[in-house]
Amino acid sequence: MMSQMRHFSLKMNDGHTIPMLGLGTSAPSQVPKSETEMAIKRAIDIGYRHIDSAHLYQNEEEIGRAIQMKIADGTVKRDDIFYTTKVWGTFFRPELVQTNLERSLKKLQMSYVDLYLLHHPEALQAGEDFFPKDAHGNIIFDTVDLCTTWEAMEKCKNEGLTRSIGVSNFNCKQLERILNKPGLKYKPVCNQVECHPYLNQSKLLEFCRSHDILLVAYATLGSDARKKWVIKNKPRLLQDPVLNAIAEKHRRTPAQVALRYQLQRGVVALAKSFNEQRMKENFQVFEFELTPEDMESLDGLNRNMCYLQDLPQAAPGRVASHPETVGRMEGRGEAQLTSHVSRKSVLLATIMPLRSTALFPSEANLKAPSQQEKKKQKTKISKRKRIERYKNKPQCIKKRERKTGTKCITLSATVLSRWYLHDLFFLSYISVTSKFRG
Ligand code: NAP
């Protein structure tokens, strides 16, 4: 199994290799952290050697413990494992990039990681909050130049804290910015992006290939709708009839076909599962091959549809105010605009960097809400807060009960009076007609 896995590795532009199949570890918040530790141990036993995580996932302690246990019981050596972590946007200031990595290393009980990625292109205000927000609930971005952040990444590689460095959620323009940086020491080895048959990233893949940058696919199985970040009510990839027909033809599962599709395009595929059976199933992706016709049919499923939101919940309705976020959407192919991003704000944000002489616009250049918008939002928030604060107070409960009581009395009175009127009308009708007859 081990040698088979090594065989299915790709060489990166810095000479290191990366296993083509990786285990994703980002789970919905309701999954207990102890499950991560169990899953990693199980995955290593099955044969997985590539593990993907990030500071954001807050599971590096559990992952580190599991890997150390598997090293201690002789199943693997540290060098057999390919481990990826990512620097979150609140650590994009050059002096913080290494701090983020050192924190991860401490939790992992490791002296180096194999791959360190910029998690996304947007810099966020530095601090302990993953999603720093202002009083109106809008996310606070930072104005750090991506190129200076990249220089700090290069320093981490030079210091031996990571073997390779790369990016995630970057579009072609953002990649070009790094590639054209004067004095560039190391190119990104990869770009990790959402990629599956419904969003196949063919243009970005072509661009990356032309620059010897690998594409690493996440949400290859359509992600998990229980996650906060995942847009609900989208068609489920694994239920797609074409994908299912191809799977049936090969006597495989739709998940295996979705993963195999990526491998045959030269894309590194991540798949998250904490379930032993499904982990095994996903690992059997090297045992069959899709025909060129199958690949063509799967290419035909592309509809530029994203499952994941950009910095969700953090800044509903405001995310596109950051020019790098708009760029990210282009990076996802001609991705559909998600519900929380209006076309107008995207357009504004696209125009803004063109108007700005600086490559990285200051906060003042970012689209600010108008006074009227601010006022509206403030009233909405305070009304919601008031309702939340008072809804469970005893006097409010009593008031609600009193209101309900009054409503019941009014209703019964109305019904009774209607009956009464109806009967009165009926009786007078009878007496008139009987008199007439009589
Ligand atoms: P995913 O791997 O596409 O899908 C995970 C979901 O599919 C889970 O609900 C899993 O459930 C289920 N699943 C796994 N194998 C299956 C099978 N054989 N049949 C049916 N269902 C199966 O989604 P993801 O977790 O969003 O993405 C993968 C990884 O990429 C993440 O874990 C993370 O490491 C990385 N990622 C990176 C970024 C970034 O911004 N760079 C963003 C998102 C994700 P069970 O666990 O119950 O099996």
TrEMBL record:
GO MF annotation list: oxidoreductase activity
UniProt keyword Oxidoreductase present: yes
Coiled-coil intervals, chain numbering: none
Pfam family, one: Aldo_ket_red
PROSITE patterns the record matches: ALDOKETO_REDUCTASE_1 (PS00798), ALDOKETO_REDUCTASE_2 (PS00062), ALDOKETO_REDUCTASE_3 (PS00063)
Keyword Thylakoid applies: no
InterPro entries: AKR, AKR1C, Aldo/ket_reductase_CS, NAD(P)_OxRdtase_dom_sf, NADP_OxRdtase_dom
Keywords: NADP, Oxidoreductase
Highest taxon of the lineage: Eukaryota
Signal peptide: none
Domain NADP-dependent oxidoreductase residues, every copy: 21-302
Gene3D superfamilies named among the record's database cross-references: NADP-dependent oxidoreductase domain
Entry's family note: Belongs to the aldo/keto reductase family.
Protein name: NADP-dependent oxidoreductase domain-containing protein
Species, as recorded: Sus scrofa (Pig)
